Amino acid sequence: MRSPVRRVRALPIRARLSLLVAGAVAFAVAAVSVTCWFVVRNQLYNQLDDQLRGEQVSSQLLQSMLANCRSANPQEIPQAPNAPIVTILYSDGSTCVDPGSEEMRVEDADLAVADGLAENALHTSRTVDGTAVRVYTRPVFDRLTKQVQPDIAVSVAKPVNEVTEPLSSLVWVLLLVSGVGVVGAGAAGLAVARAGLRPVDELTGAVEHVARTEDLTVRIPVEDESEDEIARLSRSFNSMTSSLASSRDLQQQLIADAGHELRTPLTSLRTNIELLTRSEETGRPIPEADRKALLASVKAQMTELAALIGDLQELSRPDTGLHAGRTRILAWHDVVESALRRARLRGPELTITADVRPWYVRAEPAALERAVVNVLDNAVKFSPDSGTVDVRLADGVLTVRDHGPGIPADEIPHVFDRFWRSPSARALPGSGLGLSIVARTVQQAGGTVSLTRAAEDSGGGTVATVRLPGAPVPPPEVEAADGGQW
Fold first, then answer.
1. Does some domain include residue 350?
2. What DSSP string describes 203-246?
3. CB 415 within 8 A of CB 407
4. Do the strands 397-401 and 462-467 form a parallel or antiparallel pair, or are they unpaired?
5. Does 378 lie in the same domain as 250?
6. What would the pLDDT profile of 437-476 be if each residue is shown by its tens digit?
């Protein structure tokens, strides 16, 4: 069996808000009602006590009562409506009352006044019949002698129902008002909850629609000037769906571009292999020179396919900045020197000049070396025979300049796009992913990369510039933090 707290938590937010508002209002109304009841009760009792103190019992009434008490045939003394109950009290405990009045019980406080031990007494008592009354007792003052008469006192009493009846009526009024207030507060809380949670309903509906249909074009309307939590949540949802839609579009574009690029080497491989297979099946040997050319073509296509798959794997990693656990402090000049050795092997006919100065950066070792190799390969690919490639690393800026045909100005904005290849370079080997990988790696390392046309008066060509933050010397704490590895 679930506890009440769990039952409340299982309710919808609207119901919980309504209960919360109703409970808060009920507590506030109850506190105000109880306070009001006690205040009114004290006021009514004070008012009744003031009335008793202000009651003036005339000497004529006292004499008439005393005469009645001594008479063998007492007569009822006429009293005004709502007149108090008057009792003459003696110190021996005897009393004298009007025959038409109720007889009071004698209390010790009243006897103390008759004995002269107390100036007055104010208390709640009961009549002989059990009626609750408020009693005020004081000495009898003789106006002729202007002295207090000994051994006698007079009590003035009024029924307590003059207080209890209005209080009972007040209780019912407070209960009625409290009930209406709590019910109204619950209804108001429900209305406020519905109005306040309407944007949440819209957000929930949008999320359910996206989960059901995978339609990422859904947007929640938000007022521009609104800055409340619901508006912020709606804006966050719209931003999230926009990012997801953009990511899905990029993914679909990557798949489409990858399929297109993979189709070319696969088609060539299939054609060459079919030729070799048909030669074996028919028994007609292919001339040795043609056979060697076919095998060389298969090997080249396999190499191109492997490079393309590697590039796709590199681009498929999450583009979220530096990958934890993979980055470390690197000697960038050593990475450049290693890439230069590979570039000289790929372009032995070229002259590659290098001016490499120390610079330390934080990056992924393999990714950074691959980026530098891609930049150098690009320069080697577009350099003319017996051309020159100038490489310089100084103050965290790597510049690689070739003396090739250069990049047209209208193509420069597209050089870092995935699978983009210049129309003049489509006949050359490559997948169009090299510079995309360079841009991604440099961005993850916190740097920038750009390609520009070199000045024509200096020989033309293209200048690739890579900037990475770092320092000419490694930080002193790297040795201990990285276990001595750069």
1. yes
2. HHHHHHHHHHH--TT------TT--SHHHHHHHHHHHHHHHHHH
3. yes
4. antiparallel
5. no
6. 788 888 888 899 988 888 776 677 889 999 999 999 887 7
Which residue type does 61 have?
A: L
Backbone angles phi, psi at 265, to 5 degrees: -65, -35
DSSP state of 83: P
Is residue 182 scored above 60 in pLDDT? yes
Average pLDDT (6-32) is 77
* Distance (Å, whole) CA 315 – CA 433: 9
Give the number of other CB atoms < 10 A from CB of residue 393.
Answer: 23
Q: Would residue 211 count as lying in a domain?
A: no
Return the structure tokens found at 389.
């490639």
Does 364 share its domain with 459?
A: yes
- Within-domain flag for 261: yes
Beta strand residue intervals within 368-438, DSSP E: 388-394, 397-401
pTM recorded for the entire structure: 0.46
- If one counts the domains in the chain, the total is 3
DSSP string, 227-296: -SHHHHHHHHHHHHHHHHHHHHHHHHHHHHHHHHHHHHHHHHHHHHHHHHHHHHHHT-PPPHHHHHHHHH
The answer to whether the CB of 467 falls within 8 A of the CB of 479 is no
**Both structure tokens of 468:** 């990475």
Tell me the residue range of the domain where 409 lies.
328-481
